[in-house]
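Question thread 4412

I'm putting together a teaching handout and wanted feedback from people who do this every day. The idea is simple: show students a protein as raw sequence, then show them the structure tokens that encode its fold, then repeat with a second protein so they can compare. Below is the first pair exactly as I plan to print it.
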Amino acid sequence: MRSRRAGMARPNRRRVIHRLSTAAFAMKGDRARGKTVENATRLARARPPRRRRQIPGLRQRGHFYFALTVAEDMAELGKAYRQMEDLQREDIRGFIKRRNAMGVGVITPLLLWLLDAQLPPNKLANCLKALESFLVRRVVCRYSARSYGRLFVAMIRKLAEDSPENADRIIVSHLDEQTAQAALWPDDNELRESFLNAPLYQYLTPRRLRLVLEGIEEEVRTNKTESGEVPGELEIEHVMPQAWPANWPLPDDVDDYEEARAIRERAIHTIGNLTLVNRQLNPALSNVPWDQKSKALAEHSVLFLNKWFVNDGPDVWDESGIAKRGQWLYESAVKIWPHCSDFSVV
């Protein structure tokens, strides 16, 4: 005679992940990513699913089997979770690093769902690219992350109702449907405004700002470059220094000195005036004049971000040069992080 448990149908694990993620986000004050799975398991064991969301085969068999099944599934999911957090998977390593830099651990249950769905590599890549574009654009445009929990739970619900083969299309369409600022995918005009005029050095944490600059550096590298990876431990450098008056004076013919000074004080913190250098080069650049700084960048930096100064940089570095480079960086950014209206899935 078969045991009672042996004759039971095993619930779909992706639906279990959906329930776990919903339970995890329901917890207030859950600050650590590592607690998401742990708390979800505890809640799932402590409370049976609502009748209207009952998993087939469990209505008559009770809470115990649900908890036992969750424990078994969590053992498998825990392995995937550890591989993800320890950056063991090459296909998601870059996304996880950028997720950590942005501080959006709330997306973790959605990532577990995508990994458990065993999507084809191109489908998984499309999903991650769409999510990254959405998140990076919102970071650069300074949108709040407060509503991400509800947004991603709703996304998991939609994914669970459809075929995994359509995961990338569902994610893009779901984000495209959002109209409230709490979940809006910033368009190209907003992104360009932030790249050209926002003092991002003051608005973003160094980690988030490096994420953007490193992403552009990876994009502008060619297939002939020795390595596609950006060197680690790079520091953010102001091309025109923050202490600019000594060696970078305003032109003598400005009509309104105070206004020109205010414009420059804002421009030096825009991304067009920011670059990446290693720790050894950073002190040497400091507040030196443009002719010395551009020469040092040409001689010592291998980054394509800095090759721009050699190939396309102006003879005089001022507000117009900052705006020109900001436009170049923006044009690279829209290729890396496209808007949903320009996003194509195959």
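The second pair follows. I'd like the answer to focus on this one:
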Amino acid sequence: MADSSSSVPPPSASTSPSSVTARLLSPEQIAVKAGQTVPFLRLPDAARLYAERAARLDALADGHAIGDYLRFIARVAEAQQRLAADYPVLPLPDAAAIALAADRIEPPLPADRWPRSPLWIDGLRRLLDTLSASLPDGPARSLIAALRDAPAEHLQSQADRILNGVTLGLNLATAPLIAAALQVYWTALVAQTLAAHGAQAFGRTHAATRCPCCGSTPVASITRISAEQSGTRYLHCSLCAAQWHMVRVKCAHCESTKGIHYQELSRGEGTGGSEGVGGATASAGLSEAEIVPGNSRNAKSAAVKAECCDECGHYLKIVYMERDPSVEPVADDLATLSLDLLVTESGRQPAGANLMMWFGEEDGEGGQEGRG
């Protein structure tokens, strides 16, 4: 039988077994090794996904500078949960389409090309009815009523812009509401495709930094804790909420393992989120995290950081369950908007998007990259 541990030289006559040292693995080798033991893909549990998000948003809202908006998005998440609990059967890819996507190493439910069923618009209107009933009279309810009565052609064109990250012609005020319905639609698509075709419907794709289910950008990454694994990093899809594995200390935009460092809001700034990041404002200070090469867990103890890449100039938030088990990527990303403002002031570009918060010029030219 061949020796399976050939990477470690056998001890010589002058070397005791206790003095043999294993060769250090590079980040890429760690990724390969992790891929053999860590599940690549974690699909969302629609039965509790949005309820957990709503609870986290409400918790972060107390004393937060944008607490009212966080509470509003919490009510949106509650409406999403109600919609997800009774979602209709959707048109799905057949076995041939699944096989073709696998052959091309592409996601089977691409957000920018998938022929959306009109059922997503029915879902949007149901979501808006639920949301409106939870709000007092005021501008928000008027906005919701106007959106509910909008023609299907307008809603479809707005959806196209959202799914392609384009702000030209996008109504930034209603975009989060339309995006909320699209999130539930795609989460249902993933769940129903899984039920119809099994886990083999989804796998690794050419674009390692894009969702393997729908091809969307991540909203953030999360290091998970469980009985089976601790500190394993997953990217969290901004649309369908699938999570896919990516080794730590690796850029979620260009995949470089060089020039990676971390930034966080100064402790004690604000009163909202964990580790004092929740209520920070744009004037909060940044402190550079202390990094040991290849091990981001030696950074300081903030539950939310910006992972920055000097190679491509992009960044993506990372939330740590080992530092706060209740972190939720969408909620905690929203609650640390000040961190985005400060990191982008240094010229960095976001590598992800949060569909619950949009920036840009509705009448500007072109689109936007990264953050929603």
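Top answer:
Good format. For the second protein you could add a caption like this: Confidence is low (pLDDT under 50) at residues 1-24, 268-299, 364-370. The chain has two domains: 44-201, 218-350.
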